[in-house]
Amino acid sequence: MADSAADQLRQVFSSPLLDEEDRRIVFWHDAEGSFAQEFEQLRQEGIGGAGGRKVLFADASSESLFDLKRRILRENREDDFLVHTRSSRDFSEGGLEGNWLADIELISEHFQADKASMLLGEVNAGPDARDAVARFARFFGAAERRAAYLKRMPETATPGDVAVGVVSTILKAQTSRMEDIVESLLCALHEGSGEQLLSDFEKYDALSALAALLEKRLGYTGDPMSEVALSEHLLLSAAFCTLPEDVMSGYSNRISRAHARFCLNIVRDWLDRQDTRSILYEICRRVEQETNLSDVLSGAEVSRLSDTDIFPCVNEVILTSLLGSLAQGSDRSAEALAICQRRKNLKWYKRVACFFDLLANAAQAESFYREHPQGFHASNPVDAWKGYVSGWNSMDAIYRSFCASFDECQLSAEEVPDALRDAAEKTAERVENLYVNWFLPGVNGCWIGCCEPDWAKKGHIAGIPLQREFYNRYPSRNSRDFKRTVVIVSDGMRYEVGAELARRLEQETKGSVTLEACQSVFPSVTEFGMAALLPQSEISYSWDSGDVFADGMPTRTTKEREAVLQKAVPGARALTAQDLRAGNRAARRELVGSAPLVYIYQDKIDSTGERPKLEHDVFAACESAVDELVALCKIVVNDLGINRVFVTADHGFLYTRRPLKEHDKIAKADIGSGDVQLHRRHVLSREAIDSNILVKMNMEDIHGGEYYGLALRECIRLKSVAGNKNYAHGGVSLQEMCVPVIEFRNHRSNSKARVDQEKATLSLVSTSRRITSSMFHVDLYQREPVSGKVLPCEYELCLTDGSGNPVTDIQKAHADMATPDERARVSRPMFTLKAGIDYPPDERYFLVCRDKETDEIAWKEEFTIDMAFAPSVDFGF
Questions:
Q1: Structure pTM?
Q2: Which of 202, 534, 651, 836 has the fewest CB atoms within 10 Å around its CB?
Q3: Within-domain flag for 534
C-alpha cells in the first residue's frame, strides 16, 4: 500500500508531545491479526521516538498482560510503547473485566491498522463503508484492481457504493452506472465468457452482490449468469413501457412493472452505443425467437406498435402488415406514409430502411392511383402535356424509386422473415401492375389520342416547345447578358429524372434553377435528338448508313458536332463528360479555353439501357447520371468560371421491370409490306403506309419529306426486332418525347438574385410545458416543406437540467417532409426521464433541439417537472 502502517506509526511517534505529556503509548488494534508480520518487522527495524526517546514493542497477544502493565508503569516508565493487540476496543459495560491494560488504554493513543481500515484510504472510502470493504478484502488485495475500482468509483460513501464498484470492476464496465454494468454483463455472457465471469465473482465473493444489484435495480431474481433469462427480463420489461399492456399480457411472469422504466433507460442507453449495438441486436433476436414475440405482435394493430423500438421485429411486423395490405390494394397509403416517417426517427430503422423506402414508394403509387379514379383525360395535346409535366410524371419517379428500393431489398444482407420478403414481392407485383397496365396505357392513351391528328398533319404539336428550336430558344437567347454558355446533353434523361436533377441543383448550389420541357424530334432516338439540339435549319437522314445530318454536316461523333457548333459560333467546343472530369482545374481551363459556347455530352443512362445485359441497371444509371450532372455543373461554375448552364437530353425512355407479354407486341405482318426499317418503337418507310394499328407521323421537315414515320402506341414493341426486352425509346410516349430543359444560373455572393440554402426547421407546438409522467410526448411542427432552397435536416432532441446535463434519452427528428399539407408535417417523439435522478418541481429544465450535422443548438424551450414521486435507486446493500 502506498502509505503503510509502519510509515504511519513512524509519523505518530516522531510527532511532538503535548505540553502535559511526557511520553507516548500507542495501542495498535489489529483484530484480525492481519499486520502481525508487519509488527515483527517493525520491532526488528525499530522506531525513533520524539526527543530521542526509546520506543519499546509489546505484543499483548503473546505476553502476560500483568507483566506488560508492570513494564509500562514501573520498569520503563520513561519510554514510549507500541502495543500490538488483537482484541477489539470494547469499553462498554462488562468490557473491562479481566483486561489489565484497560486503564492504560483509556488514556493512551489508538492506532487502527487492520486491512479494511487501511483500504478505506486507498479507495477513498468513508468510515461507513469499512465493513463492505472488509468483505471484499480479497478483491482489494491487488493494486491493479484497486486502481481499476477507483476509475469506476472515485468516491465511496456507502456499502452499496463498494458493491457496485466491485461488480463494475469485475465486469470491466466503462463506469459504475447500472447501464454500463448490465451492458457489460450481457455482452460478456453473449460472447461466451460466462464461466470465467462466474469464477471471478465467486473468487472475490461478489456473486451475491451482483444478484442483489440486479434484483434491486431491475427486479430480476433469476440466475445472474443466465444470458437468456436476464435478457428476456430486461428487454420485455423495457418493451412493456412502450407497448399496450394487453399486447404484453402473455409475458407478465417475465416482466417487472415496477422496474420497467429503468429497464427502458438501460436499453435506450445501449441503443445509442455504436460499439456494442450489434451485440444488443443479436440478443434481441434471440429473445424474439425464444418468446415467439413476432407472432404475438402480429396480432396487434400497426398503430399500437408505432412508438416502440426495443425489438427489431417490430419493424418487420409493421412492414409485413402494411405491405401485405397495399399488395391487396387496400387504402392504407396515408397510414403507411405516417408510419414510415415515425419509424425513421426510431432505432433499428437503418437495418430495414430499404423496406421502409419500398413501403413509402408503394404507398405513394397507391395514393397516386386513388387520386386519379377516372384515369387521365385532356381535351387537347397542350393540356395533356401540361398534365404530365405538372404532376403525372411523378408516377414515373415513384416507379423508378420503387424498383431501386426493391432491388436493394433483394440484395439486403439482413435476416428478415420470409413473410416480409413475400409481402415485398407481392407489393412489387401490385406496383408493376399499376404502372404497366394502368398508368402507362392510361396516360399515353390520353396523350396519343389528343395528338394523333396533329402528328399526321404536321409531325409535331403546336404550342409546345420543339427540340429542334432548342439552340435558338436557349443558348443563343440573351447572349449579350451571358458571354459564355455551357450546354450539357445527357443521353436518355427523361423528364422525371431531369426534375430530380433540378431539385438537386436547387438544393446543392447557390444558383437559381428553372425547369421546362420540350417535345423531342421524331423518332426519339439519339441520332435525331443530338442533331436537333445543334444549330441547324434542316435535318436530313441517310437511309443506308443511318446517319443524321444538320444542314448537311454529319453529327454522329463529338468532333462532328463540334464542327456544326463552330459553323454557327466560332470557337465553340464539344466535349464528353469524361474529358472534362479527367483533368484538374488548370487542365479543364486549358481544354475549354475561351470558347463562348461549350456542348458537353454524357452517356450514362442510354449506354446502360441499350445493353441487354445491363438494362435492369438503367434506374441505377439514372441516379449515377444525376450525381455526375450535379458535379459537372459545379465544375463549370467553379473551375471554368461560366455562370450559365443548360442541361437537356436527346430523348427519354420507357422501362418496365418485367418484359412485355407477347400480346403486347405486334409483328411485321401487321405493318404491311414495303421498303421499311423496323425499330423497337417506330418504323421508317420510304413509302406511305396505311395502318390502323400504328400512329402516323408526318416527317416533311426531315429530308424534304422523303420519309414516312409510324410509331407504336403506348408501350408496345415490335416482335421481330432483336434487342432489349425492357428498355426502349424511339416512340411517341410522354416518357420518350418529353425532354427536360434545365437552366442553371450561378449567382455571385454580391448578386441580388442569389438565394442561399436554408435547412427545414422544427418548432415546438405543444402548449404544455409541464411534465407529469416519466414518459412524455411533445409535438413538433416542420415549418416549411422541403423544396428548392429548403433542405432536409436531421435534429436530435433531449431534455436537460439547468447545467445542460441530459435527463432523458436522445430522440431523433427528421425535418425532411416535402408535403404541403401542414398537418402531415407534425411529429410526436416520445421521451423517457432517467431513473435515479431527483426532479425538484422548482428547478428549470430545457428541451434542447440540436442540428445533428453541426451539433449547433437550434432552439431550447423551458419545462418544469412535477411528478408525484421519483423512482428509488437504493441498492439495498
A1: 0.84
A2: 202
A3: yes
